[in-house]
């Protein structure tokens, strides 16, 4: 399995707005081959720190998604958020290979 996290920070007063955006996400990734799970995590001590957590069957399946038309379309839409402060956020992405369970 392949785990991908994408952590970003928003002003605490905007955290609920960002969470609402993710609650209404398109779910297009859910249909991608090899996709297993999506979760949005909120840091308990720093409420403005949010992490997208995704699980894939393999790194190859994840990379196929990243190279897909759907991925590009979704991330292009993010640039059009009405709140330009949120549109300009650059996440810190990490990838992990599951090596033991």
From TrEMBL:
The record places domain ABM at 2-90
Q: Which domain of life is it from?
A: Bacteria
The cross-references to Pfam families, in alphabetical order and at most eight, read: ABM
Q: SUPFAM superfamilies of this UniProt entry?
A: Dimeric alpha+beta barrel (SSF54909)
Q: Spell out the PANTHER family in the cross-references.
A: HEME OXYGENASE (STAPHYLOBILIN-PRODUCING) 1, SIGNAL TRANSDUCTION PROTEIN TRAP
Q: What is this protein called?
A: ABM domain-containing protein
């Amino acid at each position: 399995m392949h785990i991908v996290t994408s952590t970003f920070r928003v002003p605490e007063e905007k955290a609920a707005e960002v969470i609402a955006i993710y609650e209404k996400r398109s779910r297009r990734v859910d249909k991608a081959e090899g996709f297993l799970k999506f979760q949005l995590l909120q840091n308990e001590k720093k409420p403005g720190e949010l992490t997208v957590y995704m699980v894939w069957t393999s790194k190859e399946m994840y990379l196929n998604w990243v190279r897909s038309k759907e991925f590009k379309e979704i991330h292009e839409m993010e640039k059009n958020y009405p709140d330009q402060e949120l549109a300009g956020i650059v996440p810190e992405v990490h990838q992990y290979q599951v090596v033991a369970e």
